Amino acid sequence: MKYFQKMRGTTKSPPRVSLSEIAWSWLGAFLGILAVAWINYKCLEGTALVLLIGSFGASAVLIYGALKSPLAQPRNLLGGHVLSALVGVSAYQLFPNALWLAAPLAVATAIALMHATRTLHPPGGATALIAVIGGAPVHALGYFYALVPVGLGAVMMLVVALLVNNIPKNRTYPEYWF
Q1: Cα dihedral sign for 34, 111, 126, 128?
Q2: What is the pLDDT of residue 68?
Q3: Domain boundaries, the chain
Q4: What is the pTM of this model?
Q5: Which of 78, 115, 152, 155 is deepest in the core (most CB within 10 A)?
Q6: How many CB atoms lie within 10 A of CB 129?
Q7: Residue 48: what pLDDT?
Q8: Which among 164, 84, 161 has a CA at the least distance from the CA of 120?
Q9: Which contacts (CB < 8 Å, 24+ apart) does range 165-170 have?
Q10: What is the rounded CA–CA span in Å between residue 174 and residue 59?
Q11: Contact, 148 vs 64, CB < 8 A?
Q12: What is the pLDDT of residue 49?
């Protein structure tokens, strides 16, 4: 019975955030994804490169909406994404004909490596998974996937987070770098 009692939770929901906090989070997310999307669709169109990946949407939630979270700090954003990308590419290259095995191997190994390196960033799990299931355009990038789109896109979003999150007096980002 104790096992099921643990599922009730141990604390109350967090309080609502102010309209100002919502507006700054919206603006940061809009500008961060806009920067990455603009380069993806305006500068890389017609090339074999991509810059916009789904896991950046989840990163936006953290670095613009939950900026005090340890999971949102620059070390976690950059390290979590890049390490997970490397793991995902490796898993795909080890098992290109068994995606059913490469996908969970990539995500689970990425989580373990992020834990071990203190770079846990939940969107990193999606970054690893995208390396496996992203199809021919992503697979063609090989380990370059860790640099572009993953590394460059994360750096661009970090720059926007540094600029936007520090405009209001009551917001500070980052909490720490390393």
Answers
A1: positive
A2: 96
A3: 20-165
A4: 0.94
A5: 78
A6: 21
A7: 80
A8: 84
A9: 165/24, 165/28, 165/63, 165/64, 165/67, 167/24, 168/20, 168/24, 170/20
A10: 14
A11: no
A12: 84
Cα-flanking dihedrals φ and ψ of residue 90, to 5°? -60, -45
Per residue of the chain (178 residues), what is the pLDDT tens digit?
889 988 988 889 989 999 999 999 999 999 999 999 999 999 998 888 889 999 999 999 999 999 999 999 999 999 999 999 999 999 999 999 999 999 999 999 999 999 999 999 999 999 999 999 999 999 999 999 999 999 999 999 999 999 999 999 999 999 999 9
The three-state DSSP-derived secondary structure of 35-86 is HHHHHHHHHCCCCCCCCCCCHHHHHHHHHHHCCCCHHHCHHHHHHHHHHHHH
* Gap between the Cα atoms of 110 and 96, Å rounded: 18
- Asked if 103 contacts 129 with a C-beta cutoff of 8 angstroms, the reply is yes
CA atoms within 13 A on the CB side of 62: 26
Which residues make Cβ contacts (< 8 Å) with residue 175, sequence separation at least 6?
67, 68, 70, 73
